[in-house]
UniProtKB/TrEMBL annotation:
Keyword Signal: yes
UniProt source species: Kwoniella dejecticola CBS 10117
Taxonomic path: Eukaryota, Fungi, Dikarya, Basidiomycota, Agaricomycotina
Keywords on record: Signal
The Ricin B lectin domain, residue ranges: 47-194
UniProt name for this protein: Ricin B lectin domain-containing protein
Length: 209
C-alpha cells in the first residue's frame, strides 16, 4: 500500500519525462498566425500585395496553394472572412541538425503544406495534406540566411517559387482568383521569385515563422 501511494504522484511526471525524450517530436509551442509572401512582393513598383493562399475556398486535403491578393478582414458584419485561408502557423520540430518547421493552416492545424515526394521534378505544386506523424521530409521546412522558405529534397534544397509568366487565373465557380502560380524549384541565390516573407517582414533566418 505504501508503494502504491508513493508511485501515484510520480506517474504524471514519468509521462512528461517519457514524452520529452522522444526524438524529432513536435514542439508544443506553435506560433501565431502569419501570412506568407514573395520576397519581392513589396519591393517592385506596381506589384500587387500577394499572399500564399489555399485555393478553392475550402481548407481540405488536396487543396492547392498559390498566390492570391491578400484578403482584408471584413469591415461589415455578415461579410465572409476569408483571411483564414492565408493564415499559417509553424510548429518547431526538435532533433539533431538544423531546426525544421511544419507549416500548418492555422484554422486547421491537422493540415500541413506538402511539397510532394522527393523524386518530384522542379515545377511541382504544393498542396494541403494531413500532417504526418512522425513528420515526413515533404512536410518539413526551414528558413535560410536569405530569408527563403525551403525544404530538403534528397540532397537538393527546394524553394517556394513563383512560376515564371503565370498570371491572373480564375476558373468558373472559384470564389477568388490566383494571381501567380506557386511551385517548388531548386533554390538559386537571390532569386526574387522565391517566397519567404512572413507577415510582410523578412524572416530572421533562425527558423521562426
Amino acid at each position: 500500500m505504501l508503494q502504491h501511494r508513493i508511485l501515484m504522484p510520480l506517474l504524471p511526471l514519468l509521462a512528461v519525462v517519457s514524452a520529452t525524450s522522444l526524438p524529432n517530436r513536435m514542439a508544443l509551442r506553435q506560433t501565431a498566425a502569419s501570412s506568407i509572401q514573395p520576397l519581392g512582393s513589396n519591393d517592385q513598383a506596381g506589384d500587387t500585395e500577394l499572399c500564399v493562399t489555399v485555393m478553392g475556398g475550402q481548407a481540405v486535403v488536396g487543396a492547392s496553394l498559390h498566390l492570391a491578393t491578400c484578403f482584408d478582414h471584413p469591415e461589415q458584419e455578415g461579410e465572409e472572412d476569408k483571411t483564414f485561408l492565408q493564415s499559417f502557423a509553424c510548429s518547431e520540430l526538435e532533433g539533431e541538425g538544423e531546426q525544421s518547421l511544419a507549416i500548418t493552416l492555422q484554422a486547421a492545424p491537422n493540415l500541413c503544406i506538402d511539397r510532394g515526394s522527393d523524386d518530384a521534378q522542379d515545377g511541382s505544386g504544393l498542396q494541403l495534406q494531413e500532417c504526418a506523424d512522425p513528420p515526413i521530409p515533404a512536410q518539413l521546412w526551414r528558413h535560410d540566411d536569405q530569408s527563403r522558405i525551403l525544404s530538403q529534397s534528397g540532397d537538393v534544397n527546394k524553394c517556394l517559387v513563383i512560376q515564371e509568366g503565370s498570371t491572373h487565373s480564375q476558373n468558373e465557380g472559384d470564389p477568388y482568383a490566383s494571381e501567380k502560380y506557386l511551385q517548388t524549384w531548386t533554390c538559386a541565390d537571390y532569386n526574387q521569385n522565391q517566397v519567404g516573407r512572413i507577415n510582410g517582414h523578412f524572416a530572421s533566418g533562425t527558423g521562426g515563422c
